[in-house]
Specification:
This protein has 529 residues and is mostly helical. Helix content is 75%, strand content 0%.
């Protein structure tokens, strides 16, 4: 313990003018094994954000729910996770990061088992909320522990490994969920967490180091305001489409509560003596800008993932497994570019041009997707997905490295919880925005196309003569309406792809405001293996 303390002291206060020592903040006995345990826990948490989406119809019939109420299985998880995530830093200081991480993984396993055993919708919603609270702490703690247990020269490589789980998990989730449902039962979507979770828990209990415990007062006012703002905003996004947005009093209430609580929360956090988040986080220029970029990243990363599966299945006739196989090369692109980005940062290359190039690649891929038609083949879907994955990896790793480059180790957990929270919010905004635009554009385009097909000057079909064909005419009109709907849906998807592409370009100026590799400090020294 004395040696570890000495190493931490040396890391925290290097000699004046000397390069900081290349020593991990929290040394471990078996670092590779610990990384396996951390990544297993992180992958489980990320998978569960999307793996349940494909089994909703099966849950509905099994639990006796309606189409409107069954969506609370997804909403309860998202809201509970968003509300709990901001207190990760305070809890880790209060009870210890090791205890919190191990307790979170154990609770997540137990909650997964309860979800698989649920007998009605009420039980499922409660257990999913419990699972969301437990999983909320896993993502920020896994990221901060991977940084703390790795020497600075290897941190870009560790962030690349951690990023693989975060980026690939949402891609694999629907595929794995569909396979388990088709070959076993929808309950195995939750039971599959048990063996992997138990293995991760055993490794963490054996190898996870202990951080210093810092007793600080809980900012209950800040937590209530932030929690109320996040919960109201999530309900606003999740219920908006069902309730016709601002045509409903319910949606106005959610919007007002979210705006009011957010405004009071910002004022409180800026003026409180001991706020929920340290003000030193927002004083760091790179970290503050990274929060904004991560919000955009969440939108442009998760919106296409939500749009492509239904597009491929409903418009192109792909099955669940075929859809997963076609989208999987996106993950291959992420794997390749994350390793390249990590290597570039380790070699001292400025992170800003790497991030800009990544956003340009993502924008290019979305521009190509915006020129698709109903005749697009598998090759173009795979190639475009791979290109988009390459861009995602080039953005994600340098952005995380730049965000944490100048943060002291004691602020990493709070910083990680904020980054993950902004990414989750971006994902919710992106999925909701893309779905709303898809629905409304489909209706608008369908109305315009239908006017050129039937009932107008120069239209293809004259209603005055279609009646003579009686039932055959009705069938012909039904077939024609189905084709018009397909064409309208394709145009609506194209509009969404255009929007996501422009958002990628909008993030480029934010990137240029960041400082070179951590506020002008030299990049960490690279030590030969």
């Amino acid at each position: 313990m004395a040696t570890a303390a000495a190493q931490r002291g040396a890391t925290a206060s290097p000699a004046a003018g000397a390069a900081p020592p290349d020593v991990a903040h929290l040394p471990t006995r078996n670092h590779p094994l610990l990384i396996v345990g951390i990544m297993a826990a992180s992958l489980l948490q990320v998978l569960d954000t999307t793996i349940a989406n494909v089994v909703i119809p099966h849950m509905q019939s099994s639990l006796g729910a309606t189409a409107d109420t069954v969506t609370w299985v997804l909403t309860s998880y998202i809201i509970a996770s968003a509300v709990a995530m901001p207190i990760t830093g305070w809890l880790s200081d209060r009870i210890g990061a090791r205890r919190l991480f191990i307790g979170s993984v154990a609770s997540f396993i137990f909650a997964s088992m309860l979800c698989g055993m649920a007998q009605n919708l009420t039980e499922m919603v409660l257990f999913r909320a419990f699972q969301g609270v437990a999983g909320a702490f896993i993502a920020p703690l896994s990221q901060s522990f991977m940084l703390d247990t790795t020497r600075p020269s290897k941190q870009p490589q560790m962030m690349a490994i951690w990023g693989m789980g975060v980026m690939i998990g949402p891609i694999l989730g629907p595929v794995l969920g569909g396979w388990l449902t088709e070959n076993w039962d929808w309950r195995w979507v939750f039971y599959v967490n048990l063996p992997v979770g138990v293995l991760s828990l055993a490794i963490l209990m054996a190898e996870l180091p202990q951080r210093e415990i810092s007793r600080r007062r809980f900012d209950i006012a800040g937590f209530v305001l932030i929690g109320l703002a996040l919960a109201s905003f999530q309900l606003f996004l999740d219920r908006g489409q069902q309730e016709d947005w601002f045509e409903s009093v319910e949606i106005w209430i959610y919007a007002g509560m979210a705006a009011g609580a957010a405004w009071m929360g910002v004022i409180h956090l800026a003026t409180a003596r001991a706020p929920l988040f340290s003000t030193r986080l927002f004083a760091d220029r790179n970290f503050s800008i990274a929060l904004g970029i991560m919000l955009v990243m969440g939108v442009v990363m998760f919106a296409p993932m939500a749009l492509l599966p239904p597009m491929l299945q409903h418009l192109f006739g792909y099955g669940v497994i075929d859809t997963g196989l076609v989208l999987m090369p996106r993950g291959v692109g992420v794997l390749i570019s994350m390793q390249l980005a990590g290597l570039a940062i380790r070699r001292g290359i400025d992170a800003r041009p790497v991030i800009v190039f990544g956003f340009l690649l993502m924008s290019l891929s979305l521009w190509i997707m915006a020129h698709w038609s109903l005749s697009v083949d598998q090759f173009h879907v795979v190639a475009t997905g791979t290109l988009q994955g390459l861009g995602m990896g080039l953005v994600f790793i340098p952005l995380n490295i730049s965000a944490f480059a100048t943060l002291p180790p004691q602020l990493r957990t709070e910083g990680s919880s904020l980054l993950n929270l902004l990414r989750s919010l971006g994902a919710s905004i992106g999925i909701s925005l893309s779905t709303v635009l898809l629905t409304r554009n489909l209706q608008t385009v369908h109305e315009g196309l239908a006017g050129h097909v039937t009932g107008g000057v120069g239209s293809l079909i004259d209603y005055s003569t279609i009646d003579r064909y009686q039932r055959l005419g009705d069938v012909a009109l039904s077939v024609l309406d189905a084709e018009v709907t397909r064409q309208s849906a394709m145009v609506a998807y194209i509009d969404d792809f255009y929007l996501m592409g422009w958002l990628c370009l909008a993030a480029v100026p934010l990137t240029l405001l960041m400082r070179r590799n951590g506020a002008g400090s030299p990049p960490p020294a690279v030590v030969a293996d």
